C-alpha cells in the first residue's frame, strides 16, 4: 500500500514538471527578439522611439511605454543623456520635462545639453563665459568694421581730391593748348599780312620805275 502511494506521488510530480517545462518553453519561444517600440512627439511630429532609451539604459531601469525621456534621448545617443545627467541630474531633467508642454520639450532638452557641455568645458562661468566671449568678438568685429569704414571714407576722399586735381590739370593743359593755338594763328596771320605788304610794295616800286622810264626825257 505504501509502495502504491509513492508511485502515484512520483508520477504526479513528473507530470507537473513536464507541464511546467512545456509552458516555459512556449513562453520563451513567444518572447520578442527585439525591444518594443514606443511612440512620442517631437516638435508636434509623431516619431517611433526604440526602447529602452539611452536614459533608462544608463540609469539601469526598465523603460516604460510612456517614458518621458525616450523621445529625446534615443539609444543611439547615450552621450547626450550622460552629459545632461552629469550636470543636472536625472530627477531634475524628468521634473522639468513633465512641467513643460510637449511642444517645448525638445528645445528644453537641447538647451540643457548645450548648457551641460558649456558647464563641463567651463565649470565657473558655463554658458555665460561663452556669451561673454562671443560679445567680445562682436565688439572687436564692430571696431574693425568702423576702422574699415573710416579708411574707406578717407580713400574715397583722396580719390575725389585726386580726380579734382587731374581735372584741373587737364583744364590748364587745354587752356595752354588753346593759347598756343591762338598764338600760332596770330603768327600765321602776321606772316600773311607781311607777305601781302611786301608784295604791294614791290608792285608799287615796279610801277613807279616803269612810269619814270616811259616818260620822255626832253619835251
Automatic annotation (TrEMBL):
Residues 1-37 are annotated as: Disordered. Keywords: Coiled coil. Residues 131-193 form a coiled coil. Residues 8-31 have a biased composition (Low complexity). The keyword Ribosomal protein does not apply. The keyword Calcium does not apply. This is LOB domain-containing protein.
